[in-house]
Each structure stands twice: as C-alpha cells, then as structure tokens.
Amino acid sequence: MSSPCDPRHAPAGDVGSALMMIDSRLKAIYDGNTETDPEQQALVDQFAASLGRQGLEDMLDGACTVIFMFMKWLRMAYEDHDKDVIAYVVPNLVATMHMMPKSVRPEAIPTMAGLVIAAGTDLSPSLWRKQYGDWTTDEMNALEATAFLLAEHINRLTDDHDFATRMITTALSESDRA
C-alpha cells in the first residue's frame, strides 16, 4: 500500500536555491566564520524576499528534497556497515540543535527530528510536514540548520568539505540530462 507521504507524490521544489543556501553556510563555517556575518545574512534575506510566497514555498520543498537525498545517502552508507541511520543521525542532530538556541528554537527541534526520521524511513519530509499545517517562522532557521547539519555530517564521513553539495549537484545535472 502506498503512503500519502511517498516521495513520488512530493514536489521537488527549488533544490538549486536550497542547495545554494546550504553551500554558502558550509563554506562560511569551513572558512572559520562561526558567527553569522550580518552582510551575508542581509544578502540571504534579500534573496529570500525576492522569491515571493511561491518561490519561498518552492525553496522549502527544495530543502526537504535535499534532506531526503542526504538521508537516503546516509541510510545506504550506514546500512553498508550494518548500522541504523536513525540511531546514528537523529540523536546527533537533536543534540547539536540544542546547542544552537540562537538559531534554532527548542519548539522546532521535534519537527526537524520528525523530518529526518521521515526521510530516513523513505518518506517525503515535505509531505510528512504538510500533514501538520503550514510552516512556522520558528521552523525556517531550524530547517536550514537541519539541511546544513546533515550536509556537514556527510562531509565529515567522507572527509571532503564539498561532497554533500557535489552529490546533489551531480544528481541534479544527471536528472536534467534524462
């Protein structure tokens, strides 16, 4: 029986914009900038404002698609070592988000854990989230942090600072060719 949260029914969204935001955060952290640069944040805010409501919804769906793809890769990597992706990724993600109270409100953490668990069990994070209503403002930073933390986890596992974004970019360019 097919689930209403089956990824085949989910919109891919604007994966390119979501990936650009994640990549920009990764590069800043890898360059040693642990604080959010006000100028960088202003550019991100300006970009988000330029998208309009539909563009923002597309970027949210894109971020969920990226989270799904990251979790799919992580699930395969952990299964290759007879480990459960949920047991290794979710506790780390939740603990890290708890250490980020300026960026991630505590109320958003259970939703982000749910998104990751949905993706880790081969459900669409976007469709899983939609069953609980509209996104909240408090969830925006948490969603970005979730995608960023998953990308950083993959990069650490592969010992390659660009692996996660390159993996998504490669998948996008291969889908364009198909």
Structural key phrases:
single chain, 0% strand, 7 helices, mainly alpha
Distinct helical segment count: 7
Distance between the termini: 28 Å
What's the helical proportion of residues? over 70%
The Cα radius of gyration reads 15 Å
Parts with pLDDT < 50 across at least 5 consecutive residues: none
How many domains is the backbone divided into?
Answer: 1
Order of helices and strands: HHHHHHH
Tell me the number of strands: 0
Tertiary shape: globular
The biggest sheet amounts to: none
Model description:
There is one protein chain. With 178 residues, the chain is mainly alpha-helical. It has one domain (13-177). It is 71% helix and 0% strand. It contains seven helices and no strands. α1 crosses α6 (137-158), α2 (38-79) crosses α6 (137-158) and α3 packs antiparallel against α4. The longest helix is centred in the first third of the chain and has 42 residues, at 38-79.
Short structural summary:
This protein is an all-alpha fold. It has helices at 15-30, 38-79, 85-98, 109-120, 125-130, 137-158, 163-177.
Architecture blueprint of SSEs:
Elements lengths: L14 H16 L7 H42 L5 H14 L10 H12 L4 H6 L6 H22 L4 H15 L1
Helix pairs in contact: 1-2, 1-6, 1-7, 2-3, 2-4, 2-6, 3-4, 3-6, 4-6
